[in-house]
Design brief:
Strand order of the largest sheet: 5-6-8-7-9-12-10-11
Strand content: 15-25%
Number of helices: 13
Number of strands: 12
Structural class: alpha/beta
GO cellular component, one term: extracellular space
InterPro entries: CARBOXYPEPT_ZN_1, CARBOXYPEPT_ZN_2, M14A-like_propep, M14A_act_pep, Peptidase_M14
Oligomer: single chain
Cofactor: Zn(2+)
Family: Belongs to the peptidase M14 family.
Largest sheet: 8 strands, mixed
Shape: globular
Radius of gyration: 21 Å
Helix content: 25-40%
Organism: Chrysemys picta bellii
Bound molecules: zinc ion
Amino acid sequence: MKSMVPLGLIVATFALTSSRCFDSAKVFRVKPQNEKQVNFLKYLASIKQLDFWHPDSAPHIVTQMQVDFHVSAHQSRSVQTLMEQNEIQYEILLHNLQEEIEKQFDGKRNFTGRHSYTKYNDWDKIAAWTARIAKIYPKLVSRIQIGNTFEKRPMYLLKVGKESGRKKAIFMDCGIHAREWISPAFCQWFVKQAARTYGKDRIMTHLLDSLNFYVLPVFNVDGYVWSWTQDRMWRKNRSKNSSTNCIGTDLNRNFAAAWGTTGFISDDPCDETYYGPAPESEDETKAVATFIRNHLSSIKAYLTIHAYSQMLLFPYGYTFHKAPNHNELAEVAKAAVEALSSLYGTKYEYGASATLIYPTSGSSVDWAYDEGIKYSFVFELRDKGRYGFLLPESKIKSTCKETMLAVKSIANYILNYAS
Ligand SMILES: [Zn+2]
C-alpha cells in the first residue's frame, strides 16, 4: 500500500503540469453603472482575451449586472490599467487562478485514489462507478448507454427506481458544461442518496416506488475529460469544426429550441457559446434529445444542473413571453428553493431565465419544455462567485445535501400533480 501514495501524487502532479497553466491569471468582478461602462466592457472584450464566467459572453452585459471574467497573467495588468483609466470600479475575486485550481482539491485525503462522493472524480472513476452502483443496487439502479460522444466515449445513463409497471419519470442531466464540476458531483450524490435511503427515508421510498429517475451524470464527457487533463476552464464539447482550428460547440445552445435565433448566440466556432452548424449537430445533444423523445410519454420533468450563481430557472430563455404554466412553475420553484434554503440558509433566486438572467436560444430546458415536458428547470448551483467554477471539494457535501431537498420537492410535486 505504501507505494500507492507517491504514485497517486505523481499522477496528480502530472495531470496538473501537463495542462494549461493559470499561474497569476485573475478573475475580475465589475458592475457597470451605466451604458458607457457597458460599452467599455464590450469593447474590452473585443481587444483582450476575456473568458466570461458570468454572464456567458460579452453581449449579455447590461447595466448593474454582476460581471465576472478571467484574464490571463500576461493581459491582466493591461486590463486593469484600461479599467482604471476608464474609471471602472472592479474587484479581484481570484488573484491567482492556478492556486485556486489546486486549492479546490481540499477534500479529505484519500490515499486509495478511489471514487468518493465528497471529492471531484475524473471520468474514468465516474464511468466505473456507474457500473458499480448498478451492481450494488440491482433492484433500484440500472445502466443504459444512450450513445457515444464525438470522441467515442460511452454516454451512460442511470435509471433509478423500483421496477414496476408504467411509471412517470424525471430526467436529470449534469455536466453539460465541462468546467462546472459541482454538477456531476451532484448527480452522483443523488443516485447514491436515493439508493441508500430507499426503505429508510419515507419520501424517497415513495418517490422510487412511484417514479423513475433517468440520471445522466456527465452529459459532456469529452469536455469533462479535457477539463481534467488539459484545460480546467473548458466549457464546450470537443468536436472539430470545419474551416477553423477552434474546437467545440456549446451543447446548451445546440438544441432545437429557436436554435440560432435570439439571445446573442454565436455563429463563431471560436466563441465559448458557439451554437454549432445545425440544431442537434452534436453527437451528445442528439443522444440526449433522442432518448427524451423516445420516452416523452413518461417523462414529466426535466432537470439540468449547472453552476454557478444559485438560481432555479425555468422557460423561456428564447423569449420574454411567459410560458403557459408560468405561475405554476414559479410556485414549484419557490417551494424548491425554500426547501433548499431550510438546511443551511443558502439563498436562491428563481424565475423565467430570459427575464431573470438574459435571453439565450438553443438551450436544453427550452427544448424539453417545447417537447411537452411542462416541468423543466435549470439549477445553477453554488456559489455566487467567491470560487465560481472552482468550488472547493469541502463544499460538495453541503451543496449536494441542500440541492437534494430541492429536487425531492420538485419530484414530490410531479408525483402528486403532473398528469
Ligand atoms: Zn452551465
